[in-house]
Amino acid sequence: MKKYLLVFSLLCCAPAISHAQGCSVCTKTAQGLDNKSAKGLNGGIIYLAFLPLGIMGSLAYFWWRSNRGSIMG
Fold it and tell me: Per-domain residue ranges for the chain?
């Protein structure tokens, strides 16, 4: 079980390291925008992040729901 947890942790962390430069580009872009456009950019980022986070949250919930009885006994 610990082996799977380690592999999962490494797989989740690896893409974040390789794509971290995108945040600085968004920050520089948002600094040059007016308030209304910056709010639109932030809304677009939240909109794009909602689907993957929703999928991961749903999978985690269903995994938790199916395994909560087996952990206790």
Answer: 31-68
